[in-house]
């Protein structure tokens, strides 16, 4: 999106109220839908599982929502800087912001994922989780933490889109992800009886689907608008952080499986 596109949308010329509402409404709905993941998990678990699972999801979703708010706050700076550069007609500067944001969020993803997986017992104790719900809470939080990559990637790319004046595409993708989350929750929790772990897995898979669409489909569009954004940086950073996240998730599930077998 260049200056002409911004002018046509009404951001640089004419009354601002209508285009502002057109931009802000999808943004507000996107934030609401991201919070909706935990609500859907809680409703489905409450319908098909016991009180321990309900407590686990209630506490775990609060923890993950706090992380989402943290990541969203970081993306606001990206949105402002990209919007400022694009509004000034400096596409190269906007590209450099996007390139730096990918590098920063790759680091943030690794730090948050490793930190959450390691500190889950301490966080669970600090949240005063009922003793009978502690094991499921830890499983829920750790499985969701393995999907932090998708939270950072979605919000990071969405921040760039919004800086370009497009808040609709991120909203549509997160809407699809929420619908997928509902279906997967019913399958994993209702049909397969996986309780809180199933709800967490459904959330991570839905977030991953949302991020895959947001990365794969508009990537060439973003690069055409932001020539300063390094293709090598994007093509390496996203798979690298994905592999780290996947390795941590598989490692945790392997340890959990062996521990459960030893306890039998």
Protein model, in words:
- Helix content is 86%, strand content 0%.
- It is mostly helical.
- Residues 4-8 and 227-245 have low confidence and may be disordered.
- It has one domain (3-257).
- The radius of gyration is 20 Å and the shape is elongated.
- It has helices at residues 3-9, 17-48, 51-87, 91-126, 134-145, 148-163, 168-191, 195-216, 219-225, 231-263.
- It contains 10 helices and no strands.
- The longest helix has 37 residues, at 51-87.
- It is a multi-pass membrane protein.
- The chain crosses the membrane at residues 12-29, 36-57, 63-83, 104-127, 139-157, 169-192, 198-219, 231-255.
- Keywords: Cell membrane, Membrane, Transmembrane, Transmembrane helix, Transport.
N-to-C series of helices and strands: HHHHHHHHHH
The count of strands amounts to 0
Biggest beta-sheet profile = none
Helix content: over 70%
What amount of the residues lies in strands? under 5%
Distinct helical segment count:
10
Question: Shape, please?
Answer: elongated
Mean of residue pLDDT values = 78
What is the total number of structural domains? 1
In the predicted model, the low-confidence regions spanning at least 5 consecutive residues are 4-8, 227-245
Derived structural class: mainly alpha
Organism: Candidatus Allofournierella merdipullorum
Keywords: Cell membrane, Membrane, Transmembrane, Transmembrane helix, Transport
Membrane topology: Multi-pass membrane protein
GO molecular function: antiporter activity; xenobiotic transmembrane transporter activity
């Amino acid at each position: 999106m260049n200056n002409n596109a911004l002018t046509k949308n009404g951001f640089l010329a004419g009354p601002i109220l209508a285009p502002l509402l057109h931009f802000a409404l999808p943004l507000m709905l996107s934030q609401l839908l991201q919070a909706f993941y935990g609500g859907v998990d809680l409703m489905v678990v409450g319908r098909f599982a016991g009180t321990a699972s309900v407590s686990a999801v209630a506490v775990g979703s609060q923890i993950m929502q706090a992380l989402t708010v943290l990541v969203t706050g970081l993306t606001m700076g990206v949105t402002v800087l990209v919007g400022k550069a694009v509004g000034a007609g400096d596409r190269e500067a906007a590209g450099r912001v996007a390139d730096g944001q990918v590098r920063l969020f790759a680091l943030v993803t690794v730090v948050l994922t490793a930190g959450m997986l390691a500190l889950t017992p301490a966080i669970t104790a600090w949240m005063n989780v009922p003793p009978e719900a502690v094991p499921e809470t830890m499983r829920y939080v750790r499985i969701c933490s393995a999907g932090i990559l998708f939270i950072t990637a979605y919000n990071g790319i969405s921040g760039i889109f919004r800086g370009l004046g497009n808040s609709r595409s991120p909203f549509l993708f997160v809407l699809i992800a929420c619908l997928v989350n509902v279906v997967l929750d019913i399958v994993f929790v209702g049909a397969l009886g996986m309780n809180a772990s199933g709800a967490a897995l459904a959330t991570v898979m839905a977030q991953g689907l949302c991020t895959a669409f947001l990365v794969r489909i508009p990537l060439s569009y973003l690069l055409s608008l932001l020539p300063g954004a390094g293709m090598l940086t994007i093509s390496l950073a996203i798979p690298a952080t994905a592999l780290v996240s996947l390795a941590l998730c598989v490692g945790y599930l392997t340890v959990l499986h062996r521990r459960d077998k030893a306890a039998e």
